[in-house]
Design a protein that fits this description.
Largest interface: A-B, 58 and 57 residues
Largest sheet of chain B: 8 strands, mixed
CATH architecture of one domain in chain A: Beta Barrel
Shape of chain B: globular
Oligomer: heterodimer
Number of helices of chain A: 13
Number of helices of chain B: 13
CATH architecture of the largest domain in chain B: Alpha-Beta Barrel
Strand content of chain A: 25-35%
Structural class of chain B: alpha/beta
Distance between the termini of chain A: 49 Å
Number of strands of chain B: 16
Radius of gyration of chain B: 23 Å
Number of domains of chain B: 2
CATH class of one domain in chain A: Mainly Beta
């Protein structure tokens, strides 16, 4: 893809000034107390177990008490959680949360796109770090506490994540990260939780293909076995013996060889899953198969061989359900076409059927794993955070029990990562990682109201029902409005001034972050629906930004669309009448 | 339309049945049985039980529960074998180094490749899934059985087949490494040196390990040499555990590799393409090297101009075990036509011509005791034709692998893909566009010769 010249311009305009501005707003006050009591709540202590009308006390980052007759400490902030539901904080079994996207893309990239492959003198035998072989690499260096993905996952109820760096064949060590904090080292609850591996080759150097990746795996494993034996013997009695290599890449294999650490192998499609299973068998590796998307073919085998998996939370979209990608043609032309006999009708129908069947297979994967008795949690390497809840519900609609879903989010990953005594259930003495919802979590309309990460409280508003457009409504648009929306992770706000001259709407809009003012064009009011557009200069090229709003009294909400850059949700409020 | 949906439903059922790879039982009745090793038997039955041929004879009784296929008026021959193909694997060339003996196509078997089904539709039951020819010493190859319908790559692996490895002479390794990256081999002489250097290093490596293994129990101070998967594989060639299959065209280079092999005591050698094989046929026969050729494909680059359609016949008449291969997902579908061309160019007998695509490739892959002819005790791999398979009017009817029907012309639905992307927008035929050929697959992706002109 040719880089669009406006992309850079727009990002500069949108992001840089507001980023500077955001700095001043970052000094949050420390909470008055870190002791909390949530009263009268339904506490789901673990999958399948709930205490109704109970109180939970959080103190110094730990759960200090749970029960119906719990004494509330004097310094506690009491949160009335009547009719709310409290769950153990969710755990991402394998994720890139907190790893900046830019780094995520520097891995492989496609041909013609993405960053250049690093230059290397001998592509046939490149240094390990350029070849994507850095299993010794610790996570802390890659983790960015301010990365937006942490807040995104947290507001869904995730409180900890088994985070692994990006890369190719052996990107490095995983660490269990608490999703809160400003210091990467302090956020890490447990280090060296995963030996992360992918069947991904290096760019234009050895190992470039999957066959070379697997060959390299074998060679490193066998070399590490020998190196470990050598080191042991040398430690015992070095005299007269050649010095061991102390190669950090090989040393990183020792815990795997000794079965003290699991290989977390990303294997999404069915071919990768079988390849991972072959490698597991060849070396009897302790292995977790991660980001699995087509696991239904191997469910029985996974169960038989007791290999735990992390299912992808990413599901394919039902394009047909969304009306597909048709469009452009006017109604008449469409009718004309429909009249003609479609010679491929049968083929198209058969294809639709097969696609539907394939969709179903993805949707039922989790339920089928449950039925087959496979140990599974979830990984979030590929899913967009906005899809997580809908996809969980999709899996439940297609056969996954709610208890199994909750276990996959809490107890199972805690066990997999060896932290069951700290996380995974709601119990006194455990780390206060909790998610509090106004309805049972898996209900469609449930809202996360609080998330606690190690006793630190995050509060969320319940989602208001969207305003309805009504073409017969009569509203007054004239006035001075404030508005705000979030674009590419940055807050945007400003003033919208609207003038109504007998139905002829005009006005202007300012943007605080960009420090500019634009005249609104093609404004149209239809009932309570207001639409208009502005043109801004995006790096030498004009970019059209479209607003579609619904007005109700002194409130407005709707969307802002900036072409290929995306569509964002906007909210606004009237603060005065326009200046004449 | 109803028919199509029915057949799709049937395929789904059939595919799900294929999930467990049970070896099949089947009785093929009353066909003209071309055994290859024991003449042509008219009106004869072939019984396959638990995946193996158990009886060949007239009026065999059908054991209870055994599926019957009426082959009256049909020709029944052993499943066709392709000694050179690149179907059913996800990686062909690890083109980053002139020597990559450690990589193995068997690690990247792709059971979902539609080409497997197309091969079955041409009566081909086994193929040699080869590494490409970008490197002088490429990767190890896998001999596969065409169990299209199973998602498990292990089901396609022909367990017990000897290990094989791809070598390459001439312009491909010279271009990729010499021209592309300015390293050896830049010339045909350089290719020879790559072989000699690699085998010499392997000998040193073997010695070092031999020494360590001899003393490790008695000397606590002994430390193991560094393990190298690459050198270990080369050592396995020297000890005769791996058969070399070498991409080759020119006679001088063919002689060169035979000399290298003589110097290092290597005996198991099959030349692939070998377009100038006819010039050195007696030498090949004397060495005991075999040849796997195209019927009539040449002139696609400089070193392939001096070629003849008589190649297979000349090699055969000189006593060289010869096969005809495809190196292509398209040619593989009509190897029986390719074999038929040797009757026009060289007057080979029916049995000689059919041997080129059955028992001879089996010998080259070291699996002639298992496949390549219809004999009691061999694998139940069978192709059934309407018309003689060497006739231009021949139409494959049914293809059986280990006693399991994997292709049946009467149950051949439009969409036989095993994996459908639920988000795909385009009809299947737009999605299955692949690089046409084949030996150099993947090389452009690894982009090692941008300066090619």
């Amino acid at each position: 893809m040719k880089k669009h010249p406006t992309l850079f311009g727009l990002i500069c305009l949108l992001v840089i000034p507001s980023f500077l501005w955001a700095q001043t707003n970052n000094d949050e006050l420390r909470p008055v107390t870190r002791t909390y009591a949530l009263t009268q709540a339904n506490i789901v202590t673990e999958p399948g177990k709930m205490i109704e009308g109970a109180t939970i006390v959080i103190k110094d980052g730990l759960i200090s008490a749970i029960g119906k007759n719990v004494k509330i400490p004097i310094d506690a902030q009491v949160l009335k959680a009547d009719s709310m539901y409290i769950y153990a904080g969710f755990i991402e079994g394998l994720s890139h949360t907190g790893i900046p996207k830019a780094e995520a893309q520097s891995g492989r990239g496609g041909r013609g796109g993405g960053p250049q492959a690093p230059q290397v003198k001998d592509p046939g035998s490149p240094p390990n770090d350029l070849a994507g072989i850095t299993p010794e690499k610790n996570l802390a260096a890659s983790l960015k506490p301010s990365d937006k993905s942490i807040a995104d996952m947290r507001k869904l109820g995730f409180t900890a994540a088994n985070v692994v760096p990006n890369g190719q064949m052996l990107p490095g060590q995983g660490a269990l990260v608490l999703l809160h904090g400003d210091n990467a080292d302090k956020m890490i609850l447990k280090d060296q939780t995963a030996f992360f591996s992918q069947l991904v080759g290096a760019r234009r150097m050895y190992p470039a293909t999957v066959i070379a990746v697997i060959a390299k795996w074998r060679e490193l494993y066998r070399q590490a076995e020998l190196a470990q034996a050598h080191e042991k013997a040398y430690k015992k009695s070095p005299g007269g013996m050649s010095r061991p290599s102390y190669d950090p890449v090989l040393q990183a294999f020792y815990p795997v060889i000794n079965k003290e650490q699991s290989v977390f192998m990303k294997a999404s499609d069915i071919k990768s899953a079988y390849r991972a299973l072959s490698l597991q068998k060849e070396f009897d590796l302790p292995m977790v198969i991660a980001e699995l998307k087509q696991g239904w073919h191997v469910a029985d085998e996974l169960s038989k061989r007791d290999i735990p998996v992390l299912l992808s939370m990413d599901l394919p979209e039902d394009k047909k359900g969304k009306g597909g990608k048709k469009g452009g043609k006017k109604g008449d032309a469409k009718k004309e076409e429909a009249k003609k006999e479609d010679p491929f009708k049968a083929e198209r129908e058969a294809l639709e059927k097969r696609k539907m069947k394939a969709l179903k297979e993805h949707w039922t994967q989790a339920g089928n794993m449950e039925k087959a008795g496979v140990i599974f949690g979830f990984s979030t390497l590929d899913v967009k955070s906005k899809d997580v809840k809908a996809n969980l519900r999709k899996m439940i609609e297609n056969g996954l029990s709610e208890d199994a879903a909750l276990a996959a989010l809490t107890t199972t990953p805690a066990k997999m990562l060896g932290v069951s005594d700290m996380l995974g259930t709601v119990a006194a003495g455990k780390i206060a990682n909790l998610v509090v919802t106004d309805q049972p979590y898996f209900e469609e309309k449930s809202n996360v109201r609080y998330v606690f990460v190690e006793g630190n409280k995050f509060e969320f508003e319940a989602k208001k029902p969207a305003k309805k457009s009504d073409h017969n409504a009569k509203v007054v648009v004239a006035g001075k409005w404030t508005y705000s929306f979030e674009a590419m992770g940055q807050n945007m706000d400003g003033i919208l001034e609207l003038v109504d001259n007998d139905g002829d709407i005009s006005g202007s809009i300012t943007n605080t972050a960009m420090g500019n003012k634009s005249t609104i064009e093609t404004a149209e009011l239809n009932g309570n629906e207001l639409s208009f557009s502005i043109k801004i200069d995006g790096g030498g090229q004009t970019v059209m930004i479209e607003y579609n709003l619904v007005i109700e009294g002194d409130n407005m909400e709707g969307t802002v669309s900036a072409g290929q850059f995306g569509t964002f949700d906007l909210e606004g409020e009237r603060i005065g009448t326009p200046n004449k | 339309m109803k028919k199509i949906i029915n057949s799709i439903l049937f395929t789904c059922v059939a595919l799900s049945l294929f999930g467990q790879l049970d070896k099949g039982d089947i009785l093929i009745k009353n066909g003209t049985v071309i055994t290859i090793t024991n003449g042509v038997l008219e009106e004869t039955d072939v019984l396959i039980q638990n995946g193996k041929i158990t009886r060949i004879g007239k009026n065999l009784r059908t054991p209870s529960g055994t599926k019957e296929v009426d082959a009256t008026g049909m020709h029944v021959m052993p499943g066709i074998i392709d000694a050179h193909s690149h179907i059913a694997i996800d990686a062909v060339n690890e083109a980053t180094n002139p020597v990559t003996a450690e990589v193995f196509t068997g690690d990247a078997i792709n059971p979902l490749d539609i080409s497997i089904y197309r091969a079955l539709a041409g009566g081909v039951t086994s193929s040699h899934a080869m590494h490409g020819s970008a490197n002088a010493i490429g990767g190890q190859c896998e001999t596969i059985k065409h169990h299209y319908g199973s998602y498990n790559p292990e089901d396609l692996r022909m367990v017990g087949a000897p290990r094989t490895i791809k070598f390459a002479l001439g312009e491909n390794p010279m271009r990729v490494h010499g021209e592309g990256r300015g390293i050896q081999p830049r010339t045909r002489m350089g290719v020879e040196q790559v072989f000699r250097k690699a085998f010499s290093e392997a000998k040193v490596y073997m010695k070092a390990w031999e020494k360590y293994n001899n003393e490790k129990n008695t000397n606590p101070k002994a430390s193991a040499p560094e393990y190298s998967y690459r050198l270990q594989t080369l050592a396995d060639i020297l000890t005769g555990d791996v058969i070399i299959h070498c991409h080759s065209y020119r006679a001088d280079e063919i002689l060169m590799l035979m000399n290298v092999c003589k110097d290092f005591g290597i005996k198991r050698l099959c030349f692939q393409h070998v377009n100038e094989g006819f010039k050195v046929a007696p030498e090949l026969a004397e060495f005991g090297a075999t040849a796997s050729v195209f019927a009539d494909w040449w002139a696609y680059k400089f070193e392939v101009y001096y070629s003849t359609a008589y190649n297979a016949s000349i090699l055969t008449r000189n006593g060289v075990v010869t096969s005809i291969n495809s190196d292509s997902g398209e040619l593989i579908r009509h190897l029986y036509h390719e074999a038929g061309k040797t009757q026009r160019y060289g007057d080979l007998s029916d049995n000689e011509a059919l041997s080129l695509i059955t028992i001879n490739p089996a010998k080259q892959l070291g699996v002639e005791d298992r496949i390549g002819s219809l004999e009691v005790g061999k694998d139940g791999d069978v192709a059934i034709f309407k018309g003689h398979p060497l006739s231009v009017y021949a139409i494959p009817q049914m293809t059986i692998v280990d006693g399991i029907v994997r292709f049946d012309i009467n149950m051949d639905p439009a969409d036989v893909r095993m994996d459908v992307n639920p988000e795909e927008d385009l009809p299947a035929f737009f999605l299955e566009v692949k690089e046409y050929d084949n030996c150099m697959q993947g090389v452009h992706h690894q982009h090692l010769f941008f300066h090619r002109h």
